[in-house]
Every structure is written in structure tokens, then in C-alpha cells.
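Incident log, support desk, overnight shift.

02:14 A customer reports that sequence design results differ from what the structure should imply. Their input is reproduced verbatim below. On-call engineer (initials T.W.) acknowledged and began investigating.
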């Protein structure tokens, strides 16, 4: 039986992201077809997200770089589980996912929340630190 406090915290987090977050998308690229003639399809999965900046004391220059963003992502209505192979679209700009976490405090399979952090703006599939 799920912990009632855990359920209330999930609901509160989802409500805050819905109220103060912004529309975004998880961009997933898949390849199908024969190896000699593959077809690449890119699909955007709409989601609601909240974008935060890391404070200077969290930037260590290795795991978290200057310009990285912390993104809290609501998985409510999202049909996929975000992964590091996906891109995050924030304000029409594509960002790479450096690392991500789901489960634990904010959610689990089928729950309302996933945490994705360390997004870096992309320019022609190259990392661009701003």
C-alpha cells in the first residue's frame, strides 16, 4: 500500500508544475526499417515542465556545468519514459539530457513526476555551453 504522505507530495509537485511550469516536449528519434535503408522518425511528446537554474554552489565543473538547467518534468499524460537518448524542448529550443532520474521521491513507473537534469542547449547536435 502506497504511503499517504508520498502520494500527497506527488500530487503537490504535479499541481505546482501545472500551475507555475511551462509547456515543453520530449523529442524522441527512432529508426526503423531495413539496415540498408533505415527511416528516421522524430516525435515530440508534449509535457509540462518547470525549468530551474543551478545555484553557484551546486556547479562543480564536472557533473554540473555552468549553463546547465534543472528540469522538473510532469509525466502526467506522457506516454513515454524519458531517457538520456531523448531531447527536451524548452521554449522551442532543443536541449540534450545529460542525466536523468525517475522514481524515488518524485515518482515511479506510472507516477506523476520525473526529474530530468543537466540539460545543455544543442546546436547541430553539438553541446553548447552558455
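02:41 Re-run completed on a clean worker. Output:
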Amino acid at each position: 500500500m502506497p504511503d499517504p504522505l508520498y502520494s500527497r507530495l506527488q500530487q503537490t509537485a504535479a499541481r505546482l508544475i501545472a500551475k507555475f511550469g511551462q509547456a515543453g516536449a520530449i523529442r524522441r528519434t527512432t529508426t526503423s526499417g531495413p539496415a540498408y535503408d533505415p527511416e528516421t522518425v522524430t516525435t515530440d511528446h508534449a509535457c509540462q515542465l518547470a525549468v530551474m537554474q543551478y545555484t553557484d554552489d551546486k556547479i562543480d565543473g564536472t557533473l554540473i556545468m555552468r549553463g546547465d538547467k534543472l528540469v522538473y518534468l510532469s509525466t502526467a499524460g506522457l506516454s513515454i519514459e524519458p531517457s538520456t537518448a531523448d531531447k527536451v524542448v524548452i521554449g522551442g529550443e532543443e536541449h540534450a539530457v545529460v542525466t536523468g532520474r525517475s522514481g524515488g521521491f518524485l515518482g515511479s513507473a506510472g507516477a506523476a513526476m520525473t526529474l530530468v537534469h543537466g540539460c545543455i542547449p544543442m546546436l547541430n547536435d553539438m553541446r553548447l555551453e552558455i
